[in-house]
Amino acid sequence: MLSAKSLFQEILDHDESYRLFCSIAAGGESQGGWENARIAALVPAGERALAPRIARHGADEDKHGRIFNALLKKRGLQPVEVPPDTDYTMLLERNGIGLAHDRLRSEQPLTVRDIVTYLAHSRVTEQRASEQMDLLRRHFADHPDIGRAVRMISADEDNHLAYCHEELLRFAHAGHGRAIQRALRECALAEIRVYRDVSLAVMARMGRLLGWSRARAAVLAAGIHAVYAYERAAGWRRMVTLKMPERRGALDGPAAAAPEFA
Q1: Taking the alpha carbons of 84, 89, 91, 93 in that order, is the dihedral positive or negative?
Q2: What is the SS3 assignment for 95?
């Protein structure tokens, strides 16, 4: 039976597919760590109180990258270069979503509008990350190799999502509501396209590594297209709603240390 659990178990059990999965995940998380660190350094003077939370967000993402690399090392594997068509974070940037890396490499302080753009981008992408990690947590929280990593990363992604809701609502109450909704909608519609394309690229590569039949590969591709059709019609709306989270100040304080993997 083809299910999310059986699919990931197959990827987990094969060295080369596992290596590709962890390498893609590590690359994306490390990139997110760099982006947040630069944004924290460039926060405008009037929003400096937000900088420690953005830095904490970046520290968490960097920690996740180290965790995925540690999982590879534990299995005696080396990371592989991330194929360009599977690079979710870079493809989002190329689609004009979030803050351009050229902007982040400069030393010019960001504007409040830039911070709103960053938070809207994060709210959408953290929704995706939280959902994906929740799926892995439900199926693999007790797995002897990846269980601890899944539980920690999932909790972090939930915190990141809560932080985005709280901060965006603060900016909305300060008069930026229309700009926020416009940015959220634009980002959500772009993200679902990028997610579809990346999913197709990743599954195509996994299929070649795992020797999937054409029929099985076609079924998986059809499923990805079906998810996109749903998200394009209505599912994207879950990414643009805002509500005050139950946990306030989710990114206050330092990031938790990454677990050791013997």
Answers
A1: negative
A2: coil
